[in-house]
Amino acid sequence: MKQFDSILVANRGEIALRVLRSAQQQGYRTIAVYSEADARSPHVQMADEAVMIGPAPVRESYLDMDKVLEAARLTGAQAIHPGYGFLSENAAFARACSKAGIVFIGPSPEAIEVMGNKAASKRRMLDAGVPCIPGYQDEDQSDEALMSAARDIGVPIMVKAAAGGGGRGMRLVESLDDLPVALASARSEAENAFGSAELILEKAVLRPRHVEIQVFGDEQGNVIHLGERDCSVQRRHQKVVEEAPCPVMTEALREAMGAAAVNAAKSIHYVGAGTVEFLLDADNNFYFLEMNTRLQVEHPVTEMITGQDLVAMQLRVAHGYPLPLVQEEVSLTGHAMEVRLYAEDPANDFLPATGTASVWSPAGGEGIRIDHGLLEGQDISPFYDPMVAKIIAWGEDRDIARRRLLRALQATTLLGVPSNREFLIDVLGKTAFAEGSATTAFIAEHYTDQPPVQNVPSALHLALAASLLYRAALSESRSVAVSVLPGIEGYSGARALRNHYQFGEEDKAVDVYLDEVSPGDYQIQIADQLLMVSWVDEDKSSVRVSCDGVQLTAQYSLPARGTVQVQLRGMVATMTNALAFTRGDEAAGGSGTIVAPMHGNLMSLLVSVGDRVEAGQDVAVMEAMKMEHRLCSPVAGEVVSVYASEGEQIASAAVVLEIAAEE
Predict the structure, then answer these.
(1) Using 50, 70 and 90 to split pLDDT, how confident is the model at 54?
(2) Which residues form the Lipoyl-binding domain (predicted)?
(3) Label partner for 239 (CA 20 to 30 A): which of 185, 214, 537, 624?
(4) If you write DSSP's letter for every residue of 161-203 in order, what string do you get?
């Protein structure tokens, strides 16, 4: 048996936290590694010890084997768990761990090598009697050999990079005339992505399901499977939704696919957690696709229906102990679904997005599990995968799981950076998905237009945006108030202040008018619609309001001047008040621009055009809610413009005057 009581996790984000959590529960001392960009990340804080291993770029940190091994030496780590991605399927790293006397928590380097090459793995599977898609996986990579094989296979054909995954180096060819171009482009992409231009050809199975079997092996030669996961809903060959069990699975089919997956693992003497992936056609014929020699991103759905901790099983097997259960003891209970929450912009072709998670509030609830490594206020880095969380739901049956997951997505809030949250909500609501009939063609068939989800703010979104901006202005005004008469705060006098906001592009601008009828009660007019909004409760990022007698909760963020984000009934709308940038204010907030901090009356102007002022000098006095607010100059210089008059009612953020700063 291999003895170790300390584990270094060679990863970051949610999977690092996931592994650390199980390791600590099992009593291990845990060590994290991190890049300069991740110095304040949750996995660093959770680990017992942590070592900085380099700059943000992955090749200088998380992919640098020497730095990871040096961190293990420095902390006395006796084992390394690679998580997924990065070094998890790197045979050279597994060998380096062994050479350094460190237990690699994963399969043997030989198993990683065989299954890391699509051509070699397919040849091994054919020898093991595992059903494979008809195709070509020989070593002769000449165009002549590939063209000849393609003619024998017949179109449609998939051209695939032998060494790769994730859809890179992959082309669908529907006419043999297009094959030469597809070969050239796939070779180039494969060489750039994986350092190998080797290709394979496979008969294209159109509209299949993507079904994978979770397998586990130990050093005694035992291999079991823990059921299947359906990962058919994909975009650009990247999984979007995963669920277990597969909606169309039968006991006979599960037994057949499970046996094939176990045979695949046994043929390479597999030890640890692995996943054998298959394509399943409409007639229940299944074909080997590839094997992932690591823990999968979607492993939580298997944990939720089997009750097994797969990371704890990995640690047990890594010691050399036999598996904790036999095949007959594996049982599947209920249904689980997982979605991947990405920081990406669906309206911009799903490109990864960066920014600050100004509000991050993951949902809870019955049957809900959220794996994430995100802190509120944390920057989303451009250096790493844009997945920020996995949201998982379990239910007694598939529809309960789906509804719980839908509700959890609607209740989860991520503001400050674009995300695919609403796209995921839309996917779960599609009839084809709800009925369990989605195949790998689902996204292409249901999302032909861009963007896939239109975020058009409702009247209530607009009403809340105006109310939040108004309240923010009042809060700011109180913070700079120099005097207030006791007992009359909130009193606005005989003159009603109607506050005007304008949201949207110029050709589609919506005018919103707000009147505060009493403290916390607002009458809001949008076109011919009149809404009554009353504040019930509020914290730093959510508010409970009553609108025309209906109470509901919204989440919000005020990321910039005049801009508010509101999440209501699961939908986020970002709205900017165009009137906050009026009166020629093209550089509002600049060094010499004085803007009104709130809505109110300009009681007096203390300077005129041509006057010289000192930094900190009072230049105007405003009154709102019977509080006086003195506006002072942030710079020394000359008053060059005055945009308001004494006695005038002016809006929050309106420009009052401008000062040319002295050089």
Answers:
(1) very high
(2) 585-660
(3) 185
(4) ETT--TTTTEEEESSGGGHHHHHHHHHHHHHHHHS---EEEEE
More confident of the two residues 81 and 594:
81
In angstroms, rounded to a whole number, what is the distance separating the alpha carbons of residues 439 and 207? 6
Check if the beta carbon of residue 645 is closer than 8 Å to that of residue 596. no
Instruction: Report d(CA 285, CA 278) in Å as an integer.
Output: 10
Q: What CATH number was assigned to the domain covering residues 459-577?
A: 3.30.700.30
Note the CATH number of domain 6-105: 3.40.50.20
Q: What residues contact 137, with CB distance under 8 A and at least 6 apart?
A: 118, 119, 122, 123, 162, 200, 201
pLDDT at 495: 42
Q: Environment class of residue 472 by beta-carbon count within 10 Å: exposed (0-12), middle (13-18) or buried (19+)?
A: middle
Nearest by Cα to 327 from 244, 222, 228, 252: 222
Round to whole Å and give the CA distance between 634 and 366. Answer: 53
Residue 209 dihedral angles phi and psi, to the nearest 5°:
-100, 145
CATH number given to 337-451: 3.30.470.20
DSSP structural state of residue 306 = H
Mean pLDDT over residues 170-176, rounded? 94
Specify the pTM. 0.82
| Distant-in-sequence contacts of 174-182, Cβ < 8 A, 24+ apart | 176/147, 176/150, 176/151, 179/146, 179/147, 179/150, 180/143, 180/147
CATH architecture of residue range(s) 134-203: 2-Layer Sandwich (3.30)
Query: Which secondary structure element, helix H or strand E, spans residue 388, and what is its range?
Result: strand 387-395
Catalytic residues: 294
CATH 3.40.50.20 in the chain is located at 6-105
pLDDT at residue 486 tops 60? no
Q: Which helix (H) or strand (E) holds 658?
A: strand 655-661
Query: Distance between CA 640 and CA 660 in Å, rounded?
Result: 6
Cis peptide before 208 (omega within 30 of 0): no
80 strand-pairing partners = 8, 104
Going by C-beta distance under 8 Å and a sequence separation of 6 or more, which residues neighbour residue 152? none
Closest CA to 409 of 587, 535, 241: 241
Rounded Cα distance between 661 and 640, Å, is: 10
The pLDDT tens digits of the residues spanning 291-305 come to 999 999 999 999 999
**Closest of 581, 599, 577 to residue 590, by C-alpha:** 581
The CATH topology of domain 207-333 is: D-amino Acid Aminotransferase; Chain A, domain 1 (3.30.470)
The structure tokens 């940190």 sit at 61
Q: How many CB atoms lie within 10 A of CB 418?
A: 24
The pLDDT mean for the chain works out to 91
Q: Reduced to 3 states, what is the DSSP secondary structure of residue 414?
A: strand
Domain 581-661, CATH number (from 1.20.140.20, 2.40.50.100, 2.60.120.330, 1.10.443.10): 2.40.50.100
What does the block give as tokens for 98?
Answer: 């062994």
